[in-house]
Amino acid sequence: MSEGEVVEQLIGYMSLLLLGVSIIFTVVSTYIVALNYFVGEAQFVARLGAFAFVSLILILLLVLMLGAEGTHAGLIARLREIEAAGDLTAAGRGALANATGGIDNIVRALLWLGMISVYAVLAYMTFVHRWKPDVVNVALLSKKAT
Questions:
Q1: Is 134 inside any structural domain?
Q2: pTM score, two decimals?
Q3: Is residue 137 part of a domain?
Q4: Is residue 48 a part of any domain in this protein?
Q5: How many domains does the chain have?
Q6: 141 found inside a domain
Q7: Mind listing the pLDDT tens digit for each residue in 130-142?
Q8: SS in 3 state form for the chain?
Q9: What is the domain range of residue 84?
Q10: What confidence tens digit (pLDDT) does each residue in 84-131 have?
C-alpha cells in the first residue's frame, strides 16, 4: 500500500469517526426526547426495554469504532514502515505525527469519556429521574358574552 493510499484511508477514518459521533448525538437526542414525552412516565419494564434498545445501538456503534481503531493502527504501522524505508513525504509525516504526538490518543480518550458519561446520564434519566410532562394541559373555555 502506497503512502498516498494510506493517507487517503486515514482521512476516511476521520470521516467515519465524525459520522459515528453525529450518529451518537442523534440517537441520544432522540432518546432524551422520547424520555421526556413517552418513556419517562412508562412502567419499569418499558423503560428497561427502551434503555436496552438504546444500549444495543450504542454498543453496535462502539464495536464499529473499535474495528475502525484496529484498521487505523494498521495504517499507522504502514506509515512507520514507509518512514523506515526513508520514503515518507510531508503528508505522511503529518499523519504519523498525529498518531505519535498524542493527538489521536486525546481524541480517543475524549470519545471514551464522552460515551461513558452519556451512558451513565441516560441510565440516570431512564431509571432514577422522575419526568414531568413538558406540555401543560390547557382547557379552552368559551366566554359568555355579558
A1: no
A2: 0.75
A3: no
A4: yes
A5: 1
A6: no
A7: 877 655 554 555 6
A8: CCHHHHHHHHHHHHHHHHHHHHHHHHHHHHHHHHHHHCHHHCCHHHHHHHHHHHHHHHHHHHHHHHHHHHHHHHHHHHHHHHHHCCCCCHHHHHHHHHHHCCHHHHHHHHHHHHHHHHHHHHHHHHHCCCCCCCCCCCCCCCCCCC
A9: 3-127
A10: 999 999 999 999 998 888 888 898 899 889 999 999 999 999 999 887
